[in-house]
Amino acid sequence: MSGGRGHQWAVRNRFYQEFDVERSSGAGTEKGDFRSPFQVDRDRVLHTTAFRRLQNKTQVFWSGEYDFYRTRLTHSLEVAQIGRSICAWLLASTEDFSPDHTIDADLVEAVCLSHDLGHPPFGHAGERSLNHFMAPHGGFEGNAQTLRLLTERIFSQRRTGMDPSRAFLDGVLKYKSTWGDLGKAGGKAPANHFVYDEQNHYLRWALGEQEFPPELAPGKGRDGFKSVECQVMDWADDTAYSLNDLADSVRAGFLTGESVRSWAEKREVETGAESPLGDLIRAISRGRIDSFVGHRIGLYVKAARVEEDSNFLSGRSNRYRYRIVVDEERQAESEVFKRLAFEVVFLSPQLKQLEHKGSLMLRRLWELFHRRYVEGRAIDGQMFQVLPAEQAEEIERVETVGERARLVCDFLAGMTDGYAVRMYQRLFSPGFGSIGDLVG
């Protein structure tokens, strides 16, 4: 590395080596920069429009419904806090760890803050819709889109991405199977958990150009192969998803003592005095849901420990020499809470109706943009310029149908919930829109 600072930091924390802090461009730390390479990664993410847009993207309930519900932004901040806490706990509880040999909390924070950057408007319903639209062109996946943003779309006016470090890029690679490989294995277009075929070279670079061994076939085997920082993010995300989303569901009236008992009875899940659901029911009845969640987060943080691992990269990087192991009891409890939220809240007609509406708006927008910019066909005999000039000009510069479709998809995926609604109303609602609302 050039600049010296990054090298000194890497030596200071012996957990990481030059391999981990290297950037794909070969650029080193700028001379005089007092930050570590991973602090640079974190700071770059924080200052992107993609990160700010998370404040108006759906987590559970549509953003803007009420000001206290979580959005993708507040969820990401909570995941980052939990991730840092897990790092602190592992440092304090792991015999082999010391302040100069430990998982870097700034790196984990950067990974956690970034893990949802690529998610589109209207939550997972929006993600499924875009994947359906893009089926002829390599699919759409929120995590793959995050990788696309970090490497190609954000931070630079030249659309070259933020030049992430290897450890940071690998930390957000929650899935390591390509769309094409999964399609060949399953005989149909995959529903989720993939990176785009054209991103395979980023995957190879993250792994130091090492080939996956045969036992790590595309799918669950390969996707289970994650760096230790990615595993910390994964457990922090599960913690936030299974606990914090419960609190929003209680406040929204979806989860009551009665609805929890009814669900538990049908699923034959224990609700006694010492059970997780029993604790939840008591917290709801006493109006102490925040205390319940806060206490549980602490338990989930302390449920994590590290073990040494042996694999094809464990000799190359400590990021693969160690793996996270979570206490089975806490894992099982988390799964119960996630099932409860999914079946009582996410599958409720109220949320499904909103998901349908969001998917309908995305479909109408996709059909219009696809006809005009991907197919290059007139709309009612006229070539209306319906996309902002910057996006339209970029689409016109590329040659293939697949590239044009991907850029249209980028535009839709980057929309906030509110912007998507306004764009839909402006294009399809006769009574909406004026020359003054062209921006945002």
How is the secondary structure organized here?
Elements: H1 5-12, H2 18-21, H3 37-46, H4 49-53, H5 72-93, H6 105-114, H7 123-133, H8 142-153, H9 166-172, H10 179-186, H11 200-206, H12 220-223, H13 228-251, H14 257-267, H15 276-286, H16 289-302, E1 304-308, H17 318-321, E2 322-326, H18 328-346, H19 349-374, H20 389-397, H21 401-414, H22 417-428
Helix pairs in contact: 3-6, 5-6, 5-13, 6-9, 6-13, 7-19, 9-13, 13-16, 13-18, 14-15, 15-16, 19-21, 19-22, 20-21
Any overview of this molecule?
The chain is mainly α. It contains 22 helices and 2 strands. The chain has a domain at 354-437. Helix content is 57%, strand content 2%. Mean pLDDT is 90; it is low at 1-7.
Brief summary of the model shown:
The protein has 440 residues and is an all-alpha fold. The chain has helices spanning 5-12, 18-21, 37-46, 49-53, 72-93, 105-114, 123-133, 142-153, 166-172, 179-186, 200-206, 220-223, 228-251, 257-267, 276-286, 289-302, 318-321, 328-346, 349-374, 389-397, 401-414, 417-428, and strands spanning 304-308, 322-326. Mean pLDDT is 90; it is low at 1-7.
